[in-house]
Specification:
This protein is of the alpha/beta class. It has helices spanning 13-24, 52-66, 89-117, 129-132, 138-158, 183-186, 200-210; strands at residues 4-8, 28-33, 43-46, 71-74, 120-125, 163-170, 222-225. The protein has a single domain (4-223), classed as NAD(P)-binding Rossmann-like Domain (Rossmann fold). Helix 1 links the parallel strand 1 (4-8) and strand 2.
């Protein structure tokens, strides 16, 4: 059956692939973006995750168009990379507020409707660096690690009402954002057992599975999609 799906950061990269995957299944998809450009067929909802009122308005707009949200995929995120001693308060707070607090706002906003329906799927997009750490990314790694604690707490709190909460942890993925990475970072491919970067569609496939009926007994899980880079964590 067609479901009401909300995907944050759905205009490019991994988020765009996730939106397209749900649309291909026949779901009704709303994609939050800051500047527009959601895939054709999706409801393009402008939203700044650092603004609590904007998040509430985005959820209301999605639900008015498609009905109560049954699947949330929190994918939107940002980076402000620099070494620890050079990192400013703004570098830290902007990444935490967008990646972690913004996701918490989305989860809180959709959970009331999911509780009324006694069902729901919540998938948070984290990163392999949440487990491995990454020099120059203390803010980003901390925000992505925080998503794991958030999801597992939600899984325990809401599980009895048929709501699952899981985390996908991608490794290196070929997107517009990673195309601009320094060559020394791109050289890290030699550490990946599968010896290649992922395609966005490979992340989307895991996300749609976690949101499916087949994954109804999976909750509180962290699923790595990293070519083996982070195995053992």
């Amino acid at each position: 059956m067609s479901r009401s799906v909300l995907v944050s950061g759905g205009n490019r990269g991994i988020g765009r692939a996730i939106v397209e995957a749900f649309l291909a299944q026949g779901d009704r998809v709303a994609a939050t973006t800051r500047s527009g450009g959601a895939p054709e067929g999706a409801l393009d909802v402008r939203c700044d995750l650092t603004d609590p009122e904007a998040v509430r308005a985005a959820i209301a707009e999605a639900e008015e168009a498609h009905g109560p949200i049954e699947v949330l995929v929190a994918n939107a995120g940002m980076t402000a990379d620099t070494l620890l001693l050079r990192m400013s308060e703004e570098d830290w707070s902007s990444v935490i507020d967008t990646n972690l607090t913004g996701t918490w706002r989305l989860v809180k906003g959709v959970s009331r409707g999911m509780l009324r329906q006694r069902k729901g799927r919540i998938v948070l997009v984290s990163s392999v660096v949440a487990m491995l750490g990454s020099a120059g990314q203390t803010n980003y790694a901390a925000s992505k690690a925080g998503l794991i604690g958030l999801a597992r707490s939600v899984a325990r709190e809401l599980g009895s009402r048929g709501i699952t909460a899981n985390v996908v942890a991608p490794g290196f993925v070929e997107t517009d954002m990673t195309a601009d990475l320094p060559e020394e970072v791109k050289a890290e491919i030699k550490r990946i057992p599968l010896a290649r970067w992922a395609q966005p569609e490979e992340i989307a496939g895991v996300v749609t599975w976690l949101a499916s009926e087949q994954a109804g007994y999976v909750t509180g899980a962290v699923v790595p999609v990293d070519g083996g880079l982070g195995m053992g964590h």
